[in-house]
Amino acid sequence: MQSFITIENLSYHIGQQKIFNQLTMHLKQGKTYAIIGPSGVGKTTLLHLLAGFIRPQAGEVCVAGELLNKTREKTSFLFQDLGLFPWQTTYEAVQMPLTINGNFTRLEMAKKTEVMLKALDIVQCKDYYPHQLSGGQKQRVALARTLILQPDLLLMDEPTSALDAMTKETIQHVFLELQQRYRMTSVFVTHDIEEAVYLGDIIIVLHSMGRYQLIHNKEPDVILSRETQAFYNQCFHVREQLRIGAKTQ
Ligand SMILES: Nc1ncnc2c1ncn2[C@@H]1O[C@H](COP(=O)(O)OP(=O)(O)OP(=O)(O)O)[C@@H](O)[C@H]1O
Prior knowledge:
Largest sheet: 6 strands, mixed
CATH class of the largest domain: Alpha Beta
Number of domains: 2
Strand content: 15-25%
Bound molecules: adenosine-5'-triphosphate
């Protein structure tokens, strides 16, 4: 399978602090990548480089065969704080990317918005403002808004970190369903090893200076049941790799 994202010899520093030094990484189309690693190692920075929010000082990032030198329309980013505006209803928030895009008729916008509201199961709160929504509902609204332009690349920074355990599991399940439906390439940052194993096809264990390992999850149906021994074994394996990486820093 051809790489959808190619990072070649990328170096990035902030002032004197080197975050990445000649990082090379290839990510495949349609897969979900979970980035996990110690605090401050550069997980969010990597996500921002993939989004085109920041540019490396050396090396390059190519997405879908094109050199990335600015943000792309087909890349969507789900921010940690979700970025919902207090003055927008759910309906307005979900529709906003279509309005900004400007290439859709009123009827097309209405249809697409309805489809996303249904897909995320938030039709019943379409007239609510953010302060009237639960944490899980807010996450669904933000996801619907992120996906309405059908991105080929979805980037998410700690998408479930603010949620309670039950809501987190529900949102993780919603994400898996959306991934099945839209087949986009997804890259997300998490601190939660179980989440990385549950959602990721491939886990990027990031160590300092951009050293990393790729851990391929086994067959999805083996991993998908969290109660299986295979799932626990995989979590244990990821935890070990994090420990080994920390020791060799
Ligand atoms: N705007 C900035 N100015 C100065 N240093 C920064 C800035 N943004 C990030 N850094 C530094 O870059 C390094 C990587 O930051 P980044 O947020 O990517 O780490 P992270 O792995 O996502 O951390 P965490 O898990 O704590 O969120 C950190 O040491 C951080 O202090």
